[in-house]
Design goal:
436 residues, alpha/beta, Rossmann fold, eight-stranded mixed sheet, five-stranded parallel sheet, 14 helices, 19 strands
Length: 436
């Protein structure tokens, strides 16, 4: 397969050397096109040594070959990593002021961009709008990882690891050309995830009632570490969230799938962000929501986390004393998403759907608890299901009630989780239509 590896001018450019090696070791022919700024971080000699290909210097290099046209026309896949805020903006605007943006304009092949920048840049409304526009045009834009950035800063904006970008790129390509084998992700690509999920193929959304809509769907159960080997978790399997993602894709939507621990793989076609803790899910959801039409919070987020994380395994004490573990509240992600949306004045955009996994008790039934939760959270729809040992979590069958503000009426749905997912997505489509 003929791959163009575009390299933007960020400190994360050094990781792209590893990505290049993954491509070449899998038998692909790779031409590296660094921006002028990227050359300040990694030199041409590195790219040429690893790729075995000459690095074009610019639009006027090899003029007789019309490189600025030919490279994009002949490529089977274009991967841009890192994609800086500036590069995303220029690509979204259709600018062609260097060889890389020229090549992007000429491309008829799949394109994947892996952003890397500071958190403030990633969260800026301009970047959010650019990412949304690129995705609407069919370009796969990965979510950045959350972690340490340049200097002392930390947060979403870190370039995903090369193994993760490689796996996403191979799935985006969807096949091989010119006899080159498309290798599947090996153990290195899945080891980074705590849950058994990998990047799914980023396919063009199907035509349907939700065509042009962008969904953010969270799924699975968060895990809050106690020490290096133990965590506080829950029984969520992620099956309902995965079914919702599949139903939204089938209806034509673009789906960004934020997965905590799951027992199922995400459906082919989603853009995947893997998280572990509630705080990581919060960061990913808040960032993704800025470019979304709908946010569905189907993940089972831990209400509490340990106040302190032990740097070593908590041992049994010789004196027989039991350890005391203090818990603190996790942020209310659903409520924060509603508050953030309302603070912008964008009434009803994104449309926010919450989930209530409830158990009744002597004081009240599950429906009463759900109505109070709907009022407290302020979301647009609330999906209620009763949970417990052997009920809902991990099962293939379920039943739910869909609540909305301002009415006592509920809409019931039951059957397989796939059946229920279709019912929920259909209801969301009705709500979206009512907005216009």
């Amino acid at each position: 397969m003929r791959i163009i590896l575009g390299v933007g001018g960020g400190i994360a450019a050094y990781k792209s050397a590893t990505l290049l090696r993954l491509f070449t070791e899998a038998g692909h022919s790779v031409t590296v096109i660094p921006t002028a700024s990227a050359g300040e971080f990694v030199g041409r000699a590195t790219w040429e040594a690893l790729s075995g290909q000459k690095v074009p210097e610019g639009i006027f290099d090899d003029v007789e070959k019309v490189n600025h046209v030919r490279l994009g026309q002949e490529a089977d896949l274009i991967v841009v990593a890192p994609a800086t805020a500036d590069l995303l903006a220029r690509a979204a605007a259709g600018m062609a002021n260097d060889l890389l943006t020229n090549t992007l304009l000429m491309a008829a092949c799949p394109v994947l961009m892996a952003p890397a920048m500071h958190t403030e840049m990633w969260r800026h409304p301009a970047t959010s709008a650019n990412v949304k526009l690129l995705r609407e045009r069919g370009i796969t834009v990965l979510e950045p990882a959350t972690g340490r950035l340049t200097g002392v800063d930390s947060g979403p904006g870190r370039l995903p690891e090369p193994d993760e970008i490689y796996a996403a790129a191979m799935n985006t390509a969807g096949g091989a050309s010119d006899g080159a084998a498309v290798t599947q992700p090996d153990a290195r690509q899945t080891a980074a995830f705590q849950s058994p999920v990998a990047h799914s193929a980023a396919v063009q959304p199907a035509a349907g009632p939700l065509a042009g809509r962008t969904f953010v769907i969270t799924a699975g159960g968060t895990r809050e570490p106690l020490d290096p080997v133990r965590y506080l978790g829950n029984r969520s399997s992620g099956k309902q969230g995965a079914a919702l993602a599949k139903a939204a894709l089938d209806a034509g939507a673009t789906v960004h799938f934020i997965a905590a621990h799951t027992e199922v793989e995400p459906p082919a076609g989603v853009e995947l962000t893997a998280v572990e803790t509630a705080l990581e899910l919060r960061e990913a959801a808040q960032a993704a929501a800025q470019a979304a039409d709908v946010v569905v919070m189907a993940a089972a987020v831990a209400d509490f986390r340990p106040a302190e994380l032990s740097g070593s395994k908590i041992k049994k004490r010789d004196d027989g004393e039991d350890p005391v573990i203090t818990l603190v509240r996790n942020p209310d992600i659903l409520q924060e998403l509603v508050q953030n949306r309302d603070a912008t004045g964008s009434t009803g955009v994104p449309l926010i759907v919450g989930f209530a996994a409830e158990t009744g008790d002597a004081e009240s039934d599950i429906l009463s608890y759900a109505r109070r939760k709907l009022e407290r959270k302020g979301c647009d729809l609330l999906v209620l299901n009763q949970v417990g040992t052997g009920v809902v979590f991990g099962q293939d069958e379920t039943s739910v009630q869909i609540l909305s503000p301002g009415t006592e009426d509920t809409e019931a749905a039951s059957g397989t989780k796939a059946d229920v997912a279709v019912a929920i997505i259909d209801r969301i489509a009705v709500e979206l239509k009512a907005q216009h």
